[in-house]
Amino acid sequence: MNQRALLLVNRHSRQGQAKLEEAIACLKKLGFDLIEEATEQPEHLAEIIHQYKYQVDIVIVGGGDGTLNAAVDGLVETQLPLGILPLGTANDLARTLGIPNSLPEACKVIATGEIKQIDLGWVNGKHFFNVASLGLSVKITQRLTKQAKKRWGILAYAATALQVIWESRPFSAEIRVNGESISVKTVQITVGNGRYYGGGMAVVHDATIDDQRLDLYSVEIRHWWQIIPLLPAMRNGRHIHWREVRALQGQDIEVYTRKPRPINTDGEITTYTPAHFRVIPQILKVLVPKMSKD
């Protein structure tokens, strides 16, 4: 018997519209009965997932990390498994889970992969897959246009980041974790659930999306140029060993600032400080490549 799947593709994602027909053909060939719904308005994704929860066995989301983040609440509430077609600019969740960027290969993972129970991060009532952050990353999100992402892909992140870093100014924050309160002057606080974010940067070199912990780092520099030597180390998560970076771990973290500051969850601004972060262990089922038995 064919699997019944709800297919949600963000036609505005970097490859969404162009890849939609290919994805449909590929999934049908692999034996899926598809119900297709457009995702032009991401805020309606949870509602759409609820609408079909008794008619499908799986939800397949095609788009980037922002589209996946928009769907996460509906997935948690219905407990339907998630299949991922990485059609966005960064595809950091797919990278964390080892899902290939090739569309036929990603379809094959959904058809023949195994179910993995993953953790989610949570901040002020909003779930996230990869990271929640405040500071530089929010300014990058605010500056980065859809047109630039579509045209330049990952290069758009790099160019925008350099411009934002050059203008950066430290702000004061209080971090409470593991019964300790820490006052910091920082340009960026990142709280990670998975490993990758921001187009392939790693939160911490050994983070996994099922390690039942949150990894926080705070970049505490005085001058914008001090971040430049850190950037290569951020690709593999080794920046946490630098003197200018404070690294903390915990299951429950609070961050306070003098005035409310916007927080970016998986590339979308969704809440403000004061912020209460938690990890919710093994709450979501995702299809991932089968582990080799060798």
TrEMBL record:
Which Pfam families does this UniProt record tie to the protein? Answer: DAGK_cat (PF00781), YegS_C (PF19279)
Cofactor(s) for this UniProt protein: Mg(2+)
Annotated SUPFAM superfamilies: NAD kinase/diacylglycerol kinase-like
Keyword Cell membrane recorded: no
Domain spans labelled DAGKc: 1-127
Highest taxon, organism lineage: Bacteria
Listed A to Z, the keywords are: ATP-binding, Kinase, Lipid biosynthesis, Lipid metabolism, Nucleotide-binding, Phospholipid biosynthesis, Phospholipid metabolism, Transferase
Q: Which GO terms describe its molecular function?
A: ATP binding; kinase activity
A GO BP entry is: phospholipid biosynthetic process
> Which InterPro entries does UniProt cross-reference here?
ATP-NAD_kinase_N, Diacylglycerol/lipid_kinase, Diacylglycerol_kinase_cat_dom, Lipid_Phosphate_FormReg, NAD/diacylglycerol_kinase_sf, YegS/DAGK_C
The family note in this entry says: Belongs to the diacylglycerol/lipid kinase family.
The name on file for this protein is Lipid kinase
User: What organism does the record attribute this protein to?
Assistant: Brunnivagina elsteri CCALA 953
